Amino acid sequence: MNGSPQLSWSVGLIAAMVAGYLISWIPGFDPNVYGLVPRTFGGLFGIATMPFLHAGLGHLLANLSSLVVLLGFLLVFHSNKAFEVVLEVILLGGILLWLFGRSALHVGASGLVYGLAGYLIAVGFAQKRFLELIASVIVAFLYGTSLVWGLLPIRPGISWDGHLAGLIAGIAIGIWGETRAPRAANPPDQFPRLSLD
User: Which of 55, 72, 115, 133 could form a disulfide with 170 if both were Cys (CB 3.0 to 4.6 A apart)?
Assistant: First the structure.
């Protein structure tokens, strides 16, 4: 795929999250009831809807600021499979949360944020590409403390288990993608590789 469709769906993803928040302004309607509730039949629907629902403007903006950076890295280094990675992180992270999460209503795109960070870090180290490795270190540095604290059950009202499910999903997708695909002799992006020999 070329850059234009990639940019289009990325903008569409962000616009859908903003729309999900704006819908909450409709009097008498709370879209967050369609969030993910683990191990409930209705909560299955939340696997797909959770990233597009937010508890407030601050929650939305915090997730979007992180998501824009991570999507940028994903589109630069993995444009040919960026959409696939985003979809897989949403689905696998949501399924893991539905299976193992606390019995609570989970909303927000932070699971996706953690998943993309986990994917970029895992693949950056696995592929040993110089620029991607630097980007992975930047991701780890920028989100390092928040990545760690967000995984601990220390703040009420924070879906730490959703963060953990997303992170596990992203790392697993990155590692699985590395093992299932044969390495091309000349990768299309031509980024230099580090030699660890």
Answer: 115
Distance CA 85, CA 98 (A): 19
C-alpha angle 96-101-102 in degrees, rounded to nearest 5 = 170
Kindly report the CA angle at 117 between 96 and 19, in degrees rounded to 5?
75
- Compute the average pLDDT of residues 15-27: 95
pTM of the model: 0.86
Angle between helix 57-78 and 82-100 (nearest 10): 130
* Residue 56, pLDDT above cutoff 80: yes
The answer for residues whose C-beta is within 8 angstroms of residue 4's C-beta and 6 or more apart is: none
The per-residue pLDDT for 138 is 79
- As a whole number of angstroms, the distance between CA 57 and CA 22 comes to 9
Cβ contact 74:116 at 8 Å: yes
- Among 164, 53, 176, smallest CA distance to 117 is for 164
Closest CA to 146 of 77, 87, 62: 62
Q: 108 Cβ partners below 8 Å, 6+ apart?
A: 50, 51, 53, 54, 55, 59, 63, 159, 162
Query: Amino acid letter at 154?
Result: I
Residue 185 phi, psi dihedral angles, 5° rounding: -65, -40
